[in-house]
């Protein structure tokens, strides 16, 4: 039986310097493992999942197989670099992983990771708050939520205790309390390691948790560009034509502003819609008390198992785009193209908007 040779692309060298090497010259067991895995994966897909016997020793690989293996290797490198970039830019301790076992799609080409709102020119998301609570141990009689006329949003276990629709007022940078205050949750960022993964049912990228998440826990914040509602209407027409939905209306008090996470955002950019979601939207005020510009936080509605996909309802109050009922009253110029929902929930409404 002949000796097996591998075509090697040397790191830091152009492809013109590729060489054929025997197995004994290669000190890269993981790369060999990925090579064989990718080859078998391609062959199984060619046969549409039908059982087949894969020969371990062949004289040469067919061009289509070799092309797939090369593309898969390049994708793996690109996703690894993207993962490293995301983890350099995030400002929270938990890790972000990236996974694609479905197709050859690589990192998005026009997406930039940010940790907080990116306001458009002329929009101020920090309104110059200059006072905070004097509590030594929150909550006290004049803690931030009570000063705003609301109750503390969290219990002693730092879990949410208020109903959807009520605002969250956290202690701010001028408050006397320290970083361990139980009223500082959203501002610390997501405490859970998450994975951006490629879905296998045509929904593009999604996000799953790598850790168990208990009910009423803060999971992540929704961030992006803050734009006017007029600009959001213009962009919305373009996004509808592309079948994308990233516009999140800040309508807690009015509808002057919208968050657009299409190009600038965090992990929440990749969270998919579900008509039966496990995340709920809440409006949060910390260093900005302007009711037109709340921060948007996503909390778990139930216990979420490790490995489970995270979703929220794009039609939640204060949420993305328009409900089908409200769309009926719009003029023809403002009516949106309806996007088919692929969430698969038993209670699926059929459309995202």
From TrEMBL:
The record's listing under SUPFAM superfamilies reads: Chromo domain-like (SSF54160), SET domain (SSF82199)
Localization in the cell: Chromosome, Centromere; Nucleus
PROSITE patterns in alphabetical order: CHROMO_1, CHROMO_2, POST_SET, PRE_SET, SAM_MT43_SUVAR39_3, SET
Residue positions binding Zn(2+) 4 = 275, 341, 343, 348
Q: Which reaction does it catalyse?
A: L-lysyl(9)-[histone H3] + 3 S-adenosyl-L-methionine = N(6),N(6),N(6)-trimethyl-L-lysyl(9)-[histone H3] + 3 S-adenosyl-L-homocysteine + 3 H(+)
Pfam family, any one? SET
The GO biological-process annotations, alphabetized, read as: cell differentiation; methylation
- Which residues does Zn(2+) 1 bind? 133, 135, 138, 143
The protein's UniProt keywords, in alphabetical order, are: Cell cycle, Centromere, Chromatin regulator, Chromosome, Differentiation, Metal-binding, Methyltransferase, Nucleus, Repressor, S-adenosyl-L-methionine, Transcription, Transcription regulation, Transferase, Zinc
Q: What is the recorded name of this protein?
A: Histone-lysine N-methyltransferase
Positions contributing to Zn(2+) 2 binding: 133, 144, 171, 175
Q: Which family does it belong to?
A: Belongs to the class V-like SAM-binding methyltransferase superfamily. Histone-lysine methyltransferase family. Suvar3-9 subfamily.
What gene is it encoded by? SUV39H2
Residue limits of the Post-SET domain?
A: 337-353
Q: What is its main location?
A: nucleus
Annotated SET domain ranges read 192-315
Q: Which residues bind Zn(2+) 3?
A: 138, 171, 177, 181
**Keyword Transit peptide attributed:** no
Entry-linked InterPro entries: Chromo-like_dom_sf (IPR016197), Chromo/chromo_shadow_dom (IPR000953), Chromo_domain (IPR023780), Chromodomain_CS (IPR023779), H3-K9_MeTrfase_SUV39H1/2-like (IPR011381), H3K9_Histone-Lys_N-MTase (IPR050973), Post-SET_dom (IPR003616), Pre-SET_dom (IPR007728)
Q: Mind giving the lineage of the organism this protein is from?
A: Eukaryota, Metazoa, Chordata, Craniata, Vertebrata
**For this protein, what is the EC number?**
2.1.1.355
Residues in Chromo domain copies: 1-47
Q: An example Gene Ontology cellular component term from the record?
A: chromosome, centromeric region
